[in-house]
User: Fold Sulfotransferase from Vicugna pacos.
Amino acid sequence: MSLEEMKDLCVDEKCLRPETSEVGGILMTKLMSDNWDKIWNFQARPDDLLIAAYVKSGTTWTQEIVDMIQNDGDLQKCQRANTFNRQPFIEWTRPPLIKSGLDLANKMPSPRTLKTHLPVQMLPPSFWKENSKIIYVARNAKDCLVSSYHFSRMNKLMPDPGSWEEYVETFKAGKVLWGSWYNHVKGWWDAKDQHRILYLFYEDMKEDPKREIQKILKFLEKDVPEDILNKIIHHTSFDVMRQNPMANYTGLPSSIMDHSISPFMRRGMPGDWKNYFTVAQNEAFEADYAQKMAGSRLTFRTEI
Assistant:
């Protein structure tokens, strides 16, 4: 489908926000829940690499890093297509606007790099059976909440977030797509010692991208020369990526993603939550957070 056809379609349909439905207590779009049997039965391969994260936790950033590593820093190869076509989003579909991630993945030759926002218990079991490698990226809850709120405002393929005050409560209750942030980060954390999972933190990646990219290189059993490593660091920096039309989603019409409301790549800096949370909201959030994360050894930094 051409961009012009997409624009016409969106004007006709007004790009309605998606209906939602739960699968196993996890909120999904109705299109995902209707397609759940196919998603659950997706056939992973032993040489697949899966990039997993809660929404707005650095998924696209990690996808670009991985693509540059796999292509030895060749910018032309990394510009071959949009992120969502290079690395299929396995559970996502919005026909005819966006192709089914499952269909893209099933047609793709090995080795494949795939993406998911699914919580660990909802991951298709073939990934465990085939022992596929998984990179999981986690970001602190407050910045995740702020970023998700703005993303939901600008992206008509997401449910309407409502007001800021409403969204804070919705997020805390886990009544957002892909479910509770708390359960998501803890579930994947608990799985990391039983499977081939590299668990990364967004804040660490911002603090020292070279160190974290070297972790990815080691996990992928790949070496690159120092000049290529520096090239990857530069071209996956926030300021460069936000200008990259193959990664910043500006190729989609504004009737789907309205970057005038909020750009897809908005701030990218830990601690932005301070610009949105009131003192009272922060105190209530901290109390709720302490309760939900009690007993977990998982810790996050809310600024660097």
Notes: Residues 1-5 have pLDDT under 50 and may be disordered. The radius of gyration is 19 Å.
